[in-house]
Amino acid sequence: MNVGIPKTGSTTLQHYLEIDEKSGLLGRSNYTYFACAKDGLAEQESLGSIWGSAGKRFISWKPFVDCLEKARASGKNAIYSYEIFGKLMHDDAEHWENLKRATEGFRVVIVVTYRRFFEWRLQIFRLFDRWSFGTPVFIPMTFPKFFEYCRHAGSIYKADWGTVMGTIHPTEITLNLFSKHFDDLILFNIHEASIETADGRKNNLVAEFYCNILPNAKDLCEYRLNVGLDENQNVGSSFNYALFAHAAFNQGLVNRGNRNSRIVKLVRSHQENELGKQSYDFPMRCITRKEMDWFLYKSLLYEKRLMPTWYASSHGETEHRAKFLEATEKKKFCTIDASKAIEDSDWQKFLYYNSEIGVEPKNESSEGGQ
Predict the structure, then answer these.
(1) What is the pLDDT of residues 109-126, one digit of tens each?
(2) How far apart are CA 160 and CA 218, in angstroms?
(3) H or E stretch including 127?
(4) Which of 142, 170, 196, 321 places its Cα 20 to 30 Å from the Cα of 53?
Protein backbone atom coordinates (compact mmCIF):
# COMPACT_ATOMS: atom_id res chain seq x y z
CA MET A 1 0.00 0.00 0.00
CA ASN A 2 1.51 3.27 -1.18
CA VAL A 3 -0.26 5.71 1.16
CA GLY A 4 1.34 9.00 0.09
CA ILE A 5 2.16 11.75 0.68
CA PRO A 6 0.66 13.83 -2.19
CA LYS A 7 2.87 15.40 -4.90
CA THR A 8 5.55 12.71 -4.70
CA GLY A 9 5.10 11.03 -8.09
CA SER A 10 1.92 9.11 -7.26
CA THR A 11 0.10 10.01 -10.48
CA THR A 12 3.00 8.77 -12.61
CA LEU A 13 3.27 5.57 -10.61
CA GLN A 14 -0.47 4.86 -10.80
CA HIS A 15 -0.52 5.59 -14.54
CA TYR A 16 2.13 2.96 -15.27
CA LEU A 17 0.80 0.46 -12.77
CA GLU A 18 -2.48 0.58 -14.68
CA ILE A 19 -0.70 0.18 -18.03
CA ASP A 20 1.40 -2.74 -16.77
CA GLU A 21 -1.68 -4.36 -15.21
CA LYS A 22 -3.65 -4.21 -18.47
CA SER A 23 -0.71 -5.53 -20.50
CA GLY A 24 -0.33 -8.53 -18.20
CA LEU A 25 3.17 -7.52 -17.20
CA LEU A 26 2.32 -7.31 -13.50
CA GLY A 27 0.47 -10.64 -13.63
CA ARG A 28 3.49 -12.45 -15.03
CA SER A 29 5.39 -11.40 -11.90
CA ASN A 30 2.49 -12.54 -9.69
CA TYR A 31 1.20 -9.02 -8.98
CA THR A 32 -2.08 -7.24 -9.59
CA TYR A 33 -2.78 -3.53 -9.28
CA PHE A 34 -6.16 -2.41 -8.02
CA ALA A 35 -7.80 1.00 -7.70
CA CYS A 36 -11.18 1.92 -6.28
CA ALA A 37 -12.06 4.69 -8.75
CA LYS A 38 -15.08 3.54 -10.76
CA ASP A 39 -18.29 4.66 -12.44
CA GLY A 40 -16.75 8.01 -13.29
CA LEU A 41 -15.79 8.72 -9.69
CA ALA A 42 -12.25 9.60 -8.69
CA GLU A 43 -10.50 7.57 -5.99
CA GLN A 44 -11.22 10.26 -3.40
CA GLU A 45 -14.95 10.25 -4.24
CA SER A 46 -15.14 6.46 -4.19
CA LEU A 47 -13.42 6.27 -0.80
CA GLY A 48 -14.97 9.41 0.68
CA SER A 49 -17.06 7.21 2.95
CA ILE A 50 -14.05 6.31 5.10
CA TRP A 51 -13.08 9.92 5.70
CA GLY A 52 -13.72 11.30 9.18
CA SER A 53 -16.03 9.80 11.75
CA ALA A 54 -17.92 7.74 9.14
CA GLY A 55 -14.81 5.58 8.75
CA LYS A 56 -15.32 4.25 12.26
CA ARG A 57 -18.13 2.06 10.90
CA PHE A 58 -16.93 -0.92 8.88
CA ILE A 59 -19.86 -0.60 6.44
CA SER A 60 -18.28 2.66 5.27
CA TRP A 61 -15.28 0.65 4.06
CA LYS A 62 -17.36 -1.36 1.59
CA PRO A 63 -16.01 0.41 -1.58
CA PHE A 64 -12.43 -0.34 -0.51
CA VAL A 65 -13.27 -3.90 0.59
CA ASP A 66 -15.06 -4.61 -2.71
CA CYS A 67 -12.16 -3.54 -4.93
CA LEU A 68 -9.64 -5.33 -2.70
CA GLU A 69 -11.71 -8.54 -2.87
CA LYS A 70 -11.39 -8.56 -6.67
CA ALA A 71 -7.62 -8.37 -6.24
CA ARG A 72 -7.74 -11.08 -3.59
CA ALA A 73 -9.68 -13.36 -5.95
CA SER A 74 -6.82 -13.22 -8.46
CA GLY A 75 -4.61 -15.11 -6.01
CA LYS A 76 -1.78 -12.67 -6.68
CA ASN A 77 0.06 -10.11 -4.59
CA ALA A 78 -1.90 -6.85 -4.62
CA ILE A 79 -0.56 -3.33 -5.17
CA TYR A 80 -2.54 -0.29 -4.09
CA SER A 81 -1.51 3.36 -4.47
CA TYR A 82 -3.46 6.39 -3.34
CA GLU A 83 -1.53 9.50 -2.41
CA ILE A 84 -3.88 10.82 0.27
CA PHE A 85 -4.77 7.49 1.88
CA GLY A 86 -2.55 8.42 4.81
CA LYS A 87 -4.61 11.56 5.34
CA LEU A 88 -7.83 9.52 5.31
CA MET A 89 -6.69 7.64 8.39
CA HIS A 90 -7.47 9.26 11.72
CA ASP A 91 -5.56 8.41 14.85
CA ASP A 92 -8.42 6.49 16.46
CA ALA A 93 -8.74 2.76 17.10
CA GLU A 94 -11.81 2.19 14.91
CA HIS A 95 -10.17 3.39 11.69
CA TRP A 96 -7.18 1.12 12.17
CA GLU A 97 -9.25 -1.87 13.21
CA ASN A 98 -11.32 -1.46 10.06
CA LEU A 99 -8.25 -1.22 7.82
CA LYS A 100 -6.80 -4.38 9.36
CA ARG A 101 -10.14 -6.16 9.04
CA ALA A 102 -10.38 -5.14 5.36
CA THR A 103 -6.87 -6.42 4.59
CA GLU A 104 -7.05 -9.56 6.73
CA GLY A 105 -5.24 -12.48 5.10
CA PHE A 106 -2.62 -10.26 3.47
CA ARG A 107 0.81 -9.40 4.76
CA VAL A 108 0.50 -5.62 4.50
CA VAL A 109 3.54 -3.53 3.63
CA ILE A 110 3.10 0.24 3.95
CA VAL A 111 5.04 2.45 1.52
CA VAL A 112 5.43 6.12 2.42
CA THR A 113 6.98 8.44 -0.17
CA TYR A 114 9.59 11.13 0.43
CA ARG A 115 10.39 14.29 -1.52
CA ARG A 116 12.68 17.12 -0.44
CA PHE A 117 10.59 19.41 1.73
CA PHE A 118 11.22 22.60 -0.24
CA GLU A 119 10.38 20.92 -3.57
CA TRP A 120 7.27 19.32 -2.11
CA ARG A 121 6.04 22.64 -0.70
CA LEU A 122 6.51 24.37 -4.06
CA GLN A 123 4.35 21.72 -5.72
CA ILE A 124 1.65 22.08 -3.07
CA PHE A 125 1.61 25.85 -3.65
CA ARG A 126 0.99 25.33 -7.36
CA LEU A 127 -1.75 22.85 -6.58
CA PHE A 128 -3.29 25.17 -3.97
CA ASP A 129 -3.80 28.00 -6.45
CA ARG A 130 -4.85 25.75 -9.35
CA TRP A 131 -7.71 24.39 -7.24
CA SER A 132 -9.34 27.82 -7.07
CA PHE A 133 -8.15 29.43 -10.32
CA GLY A 134 -11.01 30.30 -12.63
CA THR A 135 -13.68 30.00 -9.94
CA PRO A 136 -15.74 32.93 -8.66
CA VAL A 137 -13.90 32.77 -5.32
CA PHE A 138 -10.40 32.85 -6.84
CA ILE A 139 -8.10 35.14 -4.90
CA PRO A 140 -4.50 35.13 -6.19
CA MET A 141 -1.99 34.23 -3.50
CA THR A 142 1.69 34.97 -3.94
CA PHE A 143 4.25 32.47 -2.73
CA PRO A 144 5.45 34.83 0.04
CA LYS A 145 1.88 35.09 1.36
CA PHE A 146 1.42 31.32 1.08
CA PHE A 147 4.72 30.72 2.85
CA GLU A 148 3.75 32.93 5.78
CA TYR A 149 0.19 31.58 5.87
CA CYS A 150 1.38 27.97 6.32
CA ARG A 151 3.34 28.95 9.43
CA HIS A 152 0.19 30.04 11.26
CA ALA A 153 -2.07 27.84 13.36
CA GLY A 154 -5.17 28.75 11.36
CA SER A 155 -3.78 27.57 8.01
CA ILE A 156 -4.83 24.67 5.82
CA TYR A 157 -1.38 23.19 6.55
CA LYS A 158 -2.37 22.81 10.20
CA ALA A 159 -5.71 21.30 9.16
CA ASP A 160 -3.98 18.79 6.86
CA TRP A 161 -1.04 17.76 9.01
CA GLY A 162 -1.95 18.68 12.57
CA THR A 163 0.89 21.16 12.97
CA VAL A 164 2.25 24.33 11.40
CA MET A 165 4.87 24.29 8.64
CA GLY A 166 8.36 23.92 10.02
CA THR A 167 7.73 21.40 12.77
CA ILE A 168 8.05 18.05 10.95
CA HIS A 169 8.01 16.68 7.39
CA PRO A 170 4.58 15.24 6.44
CA THR A 171 6.35 12.07 5.34
CA GLU A 172 7.57 11.62 8.91
CA ILE A 173 4.07 12.35 10.24
CA THR A 174 2.68 9.59 7.99
CA LEU A 175 5.43 7.15 8.96
CA ASN A 176 4.81 7.78 12.64
CA LEU A 177 1.08 7.30 12.22
CA PHE A 178 1.28 3.96 10.36
CA SER A 179 4.15 2.58 12.44
CA LYS A 180 1.81 2.42 15.44
CA HIS A 181 -0.29 -0.18 13.65
CA PHE A 182 1.91 -1.93 11.04
CA ASP A 183 5.32 -3.53 11.38
CA ASP A 184 6.37 -3.49 7.72
CA LEU A 185 7.03 0.04 6.49
CA ILE A 186 9.21 1.21 3.62
CA LEU A 187 10.35 4.77 2.97
CA PHE A 188 10.34 5.36 -0.80
CA ASN A 189 12.83 8.11 -1.64
CA ILE A 190 11.78 9.32 -5.09
CA HIS A 191 15.12 11.10 -5.61
CA GLU A 192 16.85 7.74 -6.00
CA ALA A 193 15.03 7.48 -9.33
CA SER A 194 17.35 10.16 -10.73
CA ILE A 195 20.48 8.02 -10.19
CA GLU A 196 21.82 5.84 -12.99
CA THR A 197 21.96 2.11 -12.36
CA ALA A 198 25.27 0.37 -11.68
CA ASP A 199 25.46 -0.68 -15.36
CA GLY A 200 24.88 2.89 -16.58
CA ARG A 201 21.19 2.73 -17.50
CA LYS A 202 18.89 5.68 -16.94
CA ASN A 203 16.57 5.11 -13.99
CA ASN A 204 13.01 6.36 -13.55
CA LEU A 205 10.38 6.54 -10.81
CA VAL A 206 8.45 3.42 -11.82
CA ALA A 207 11.58 1.32 -12.33
CA GLU A 208 12.82 2.42 -8.91
CA PHE A 209 9.53 1.26 -7.39
CA TYR A 210 9.69 -2.10 -9.19
CA CYS A 211 13.39 -2.68 -8.51
CA ASN A 212 13.65 -1.62 -4.88
CA ILE A 213 10.15 -1.62 -3.37
CA LEU A 214 8.42 -4.69 -4.82
CA PRO A 215 9.91 -8.04 -3.76
CA ASN A 216 10.70 -10.62 -6.45
CA ALA A 217 9.91 -8.27 -9.33
CA LYS A 218 13.10 -8.58 -11.39
CA ASP A 219 11.28 -8.85 -14.73
CA LEU A 220 9.18 -5.75 -13.99
CA CYS A 221 12.32 -3.92 -12.93
CA GLU A 222 14.23 -4.83 -16.09
CA TYR A 223 11.30 -3.96 -18.35
CA ARG A 224 10.81 -0.45 -16.98
CA LEU A 225 14.55 0.22 -16.95
CA ASN A 226 14.82 -0.79 -20.60
CA VAL A 227 11.58 0.76 -21.88
CA GLY A 228 11.49 3.82 -19.65
CA LEU A 229 8.54 6.16 -19.36
CA ASP A 230 6.79 7.92 -22.22
CA GLU A 231 6.11 11.16 -20.38
CA ASN A 232 5.68 12.68 -16.96
CA GLN A 233 2.15 12.63 -15.63
CA ASN A 234 0.37 15.52 -13.90
CA VAL A 235 3.00 18.12 -14.82
CA GLY A 236 1.72 21.66 -14.53
CA SER A 237 2.94 24.93 -16.03
CA SER A 238 4.02 28.04 -14.18
CA PHE A 239 1.19 29.72 -12.33
CA ASN A 240 2.69 33.14 -13.08
CA TYR A 241 0.93 33.18 -16.43
CA ALA A 242 -2.40 32.46 -14.77
CA LEU A 243 -1.90 35.34 -12.34
CA PHE A 244 -0.90 37.63 -15.22
CA ALA A 245 -4.08 36.67 -17.08
CA HIS A 246 -6.19 37.23 -13.98
CA ALA A 247 -4.78 40.74 -13.50
CA ALA A 248 -5.20 41.61 -17.18
CA PHE A 249 -8.79 40.44 -17.06
CA ASN A 250 -9.55 42.51 -13.95
CA GLN A 251 -7.96 45.60 -15.45
CA GLY A 252 -10.08 45.34 -18.59
CA LEU A 253 -7.08 44.72 -20.84
CA VAL A 254 -8.66 41.65 -22.44
CA ASN A 255 -12.11 40.89 -23.74
CA ARG A 256 -14.32 39.49 -20.98
CA GLY A 257 -15.61 36.81 -23.31
CA ASN A 258 -12.26 35.02 -23.19
CA ARG A 259 -11.48 32.05 -21.00
CA ASN A 260 -8.48 32.39 -18.68
CA SER A 261 -6.84 29.33 -20.25
CA ARG A 262 -6.86 31.01 -23.65
CA ILE A 263 -5.18 34.14 -22.30
CA VAL A 264 -2.59 32.04 -20.46
CA LYS A 265 -1.69 30.15 -23.63
CA LEU A 266 -1.14 33.33 -25.64
CA VAL A 267 0.79 35.14 -22.90
CA ARG A 268 3.05 32.14 -22.37
CA SER A 269 3.70 31.76 -26.09
CA HIS A 270 4.57 35.43 -26.44
CA GLN A 271 6.86 35.44 -23.38
CA GLU A 272 8.75 32.23 -24.21
CA ASN A 273 8.64 31.93 -28.00
CA GLU A 274 8.66 35.54 -29.18
CA LEU A 275 10.52 37.30 -26.36
CA GLY A 276 12.77 34.35 -25.49
CA LYS A 277 12.10 34.75 -21.77
CA GLN A 278 10.84 32.50 -18.97
CA SER A 279 7.90 32.60 -16.61
CA TYR A 280 10.10 34.17 -13.93
CA ASP A 281 11.29 37.05 -16.16
CA PHE A 282 8.61 39.37 -14.82
CA PRO A 283 8.60 41.74 -11.83
CA MET A 284 8.47 39.31 -8.89
CA ARG A 285 7.58 39.16 -5.21
CA CYS A 286 9.84 36.79 -3.26
CA ILE A 287 10.30 35.50 0.26
CA THR A 288 13.11 37.22 2.18
CA ARG A 289 16.69 35.99 2.40
CA LYS A 290 16.10 35.04 6.03
CA GLU A 291 13.02 33.02 5.06
CA MET A 292 15.00 31.26 2.31
CA ASP A 293 17.70 30.32 4.83
CA TRP A 294 15.02 28.98 7.20
CA PHE A 295 13.39 27.00 4.37
CA LEU A 296 16.68 25.35 3.38
CA TYR A 297 17.60 24.65 7.01
CA LYS A 298 14.29 22.86 7.64
CA SER A 299 14.46 20.94 4.37
CA LEU A 300 17.97 19.67 5.14
CA LEU A 301 17.07 18.90 8.74
CA TYR A 302 14.13 16.69 7.76
CA GLU A 303 16.17 14.73 5.21
CA LYS A 304 19.01 14.15 7.67
CA ARG A 305 16.53 12.93 10.28
CA LEU A 306 14.59 10.66 7.92
CA MET A 307 17.50 9.28 5.87
CA PRO A 308 20.89 9.87 7.51
CA THR A 309 22.76 7.48 5.19
CA TRP A 310 21.31 9.06 2.04
CA TYR A 311 21.94 12.54 3.46
CA ALA A 312 25.63 11.76 3.98
CA SER A 313 26.03 10.43 0.43
CA SER A 314 27.02 12.51 -2.61
CA HIS A 315 23.35 12.62 -3.62
CA GLY A 316 22.17 13.84 -0.22
CA GLU A 317 23.09 17.17 1.31
CA THR A 318 25.30 18.32 -1.59
CA GLU A 319 22.64 17.70 -4.22
CA HIS A 320 19.93 19.04 -1.91
CA ARG A 321 21.76 22.36 -1.59
CA ALA A 322 22.44 22.51 -5.33
CA LYS A 323 18.76 21.98 -6.15
CA PHE A 324 17.77 24.68 -3.68
CA LEU A 325 20.23 27.11 -5.26
CA GLU A 326 18.87 26.26 -8.70
CA ALA A 327 15.33 26.93 -7.48
CA THR A 328 16.47 30.27 -6.06
CA GLU A 329 18.07 31.30 -9.34
CA LYS A 330 14.89 30.41 -11.21
CA LYS A 331 12.88 32.45 -8.70
CA LYS A 332 10.83 29.46 -7.58
CA PHE A 333 10.29 31.11 -4.19
CA CYS A 334 8.72 34.09 -5.88
CA THR A 335 5.48 34.91 -7.64
CA ILE A 336 4.82 37.41 -10.36
CA ASP A 337 3.88 40.91 -9.27
CA ALA A 338 1.02 40.86 -11.74
CA SER A 339 -0.21 44.40 -11.10
CA LYS A 340 3.24 45.76 -11.88
CA ALA A 341 3.79 43.44 -14.84
CA ILE A 342 0.68 44.61 -16.70
CA GLU A 343 1.75 48.23 -16.31
CA ASP A 344 4.42 47.53 -18.93
CA SER A 345 3.41 49.41 -22.09
CA ASP A 346 4.64 46.66 -24.44
CA TRP A 347 2.47 44.08 -22.69
CA GLN A 348 -0.50 46.43 -22.75
CA LYS A 349 -0.06 46.84 -26.51
CA PHE A 350 0.26 43.08 -27.00
CA LEU A 351 -2.97 42.44 -25.11
CA TYR A 352 -4.86 45.40 -26.55
CA TYR A 353 -4.13 44.67 -30.19
CA ASN A 354 -4.17 40.89 -30.08
CA SER A 355 -7.05 39.89 -32.34
CA GLU A 356 -7.79 36.75 -30.30
CA ILE A 357 -8.15 38.27 -26.85
CA GLY A 358 -7.79 42.03 -27.09
CA VAL A 359 -10.44 44.58 -26.26
CA GLU A 360 -11.88 46.11 -29.41
CA PRO A 361 -9.86 49.28 -30.09
CA LYS A 362 -11.79 52.50 -29.69
CA ASN A 363 -11.50 55.91 -31.36
CA GLU A 364 -9.71 54.53 -34.40
CA SER A 365 -10.65 55.27 -37.98
CA SER A 366 -11.26 52.59 -40.58
CA GLU A 367 -7.94 53.61 -42.13
CA GLY A 368 -6.09 51.99 -39.23
CA GLY A 369 -4.88 52.75 -35.75
CA GLN A 370 -1.81 54.32 -34.29
Answers:
(1) 999 999 999 999 998 887
(2) 37
(3) helix 117-132
(4) 170
